[in-house]
Amino acid sequence: LLDNKVHTRKDVESVVKAPILGDIPKSKSEKKVVISDNDRDSTAESFRLLRTNVNFMLSSGKEHTKTIFISSTLGNEGKTFIAINLASVLALTNKKVLLVGGDIRKPKIAAYLNIQSTKKGLSHFLMDKSLQVSDVIEQFKETNFDILESGIVAPNPSELLMRPRMKELLEILKSSYDLIIIDSTPLLLVSDTTPILPLCDLVVYVSRAQYSDKNIFPFIKEIHGREGLTLR
Q1: pTM for this one?
Q2: Pick from 230, 223, 205, 192: nearest CA to 9
Q3: DSSP secondary-structure letter at 196?
């Protein structure tokens, strides 16, 4: 009666009716990127299964760039880890993939990948209309996908992401990439990235076993029930 943590997928399926795309086991490696051509451990294979299910959800008659929004309820549930490795496993199929740091309050992508960005990021682009898309996108030898980092921590992230320039940015990016993955903020903590939700083709919601609280299920159900959203 006192145990209020999520332990298995059945805990989620019994309440939330959104399809479950996969289960990612805890990695024994300290590396944040667990996917490469030669990786065959259980974590790498689980990401390949996740890729298959994501591709199935995105399949439609229209061929266009797909935008995937990745979020969670609270921090430390694994959304950035999922976003980075999903970008990596999708890029292995010869897709041109861009990972966008949508969390401009607590950016983590550069730290997770141990990379040093030399360009400006998303918050810079949204504030400075003189910047071009090429000024904020980087390619790293360590990754097989491109990255648009979060940029500086802005004092008004919600207002920045609500600007028409964000929608314009996504439209420009769609002309250059097959898949765009947005690593967003935790939706229950802050509403910064909520305006981006209708612009995305798929919302991937991350919960962490032994950590996520079952009391958050009503919030997830509310997100799933919103008109125009495809939540998984």
Answers
A1: 0.89
A2: 205
A3: G
For residue 74, give every residue at least 6 positions away whose Cβ sits within 8 Å of its Cβ, in sequence order, or none: 186, 188, 189, 212, 213, 216
Fill in the DSSP letter of residue 5.
B
Task: Name the pairing type of β-strands 179-183 and 66-72.
Answer: parallel
> Please, which residues have CB within 8 angstroms of residue 38's CB and are 6 or more apart in sequence?
none
* C-alpha–C-alpha distance, residues 74 and 76, integer Å: 7
Residue 73 per-residue DSSP state: S
Among candidate residues 9, 11, 37, 41, the one with its CA nearest the CA of residue 23: 9
Q: β-strands 137-139, 146-148: how paired?
A: antiparallel
Contact 22, 6 (CB under 8 A): no
pLDDT in tens, the chain (232 residues): 788 888 888 888 888 878 889 999 887 777 778 777 777 788 889 999 999 999 998 886 566 779 999 988 888 899 999 999 999 999 999 999 999 999 888 888 988 888 887 789 999 999 999 999 999 999 888 788 999 999 988 788 888 888 889 999 999 999 999 999 999 888 877 766 777 888 888 989 998 998 988 887 777 777 776 655 666 6
Residues 43, 49, 53, 58: is their CA dihedral positive or negative? positive
Q: What is the dihedral of CA 130, 182, 145, 67, to 10 degrees?
A: -100
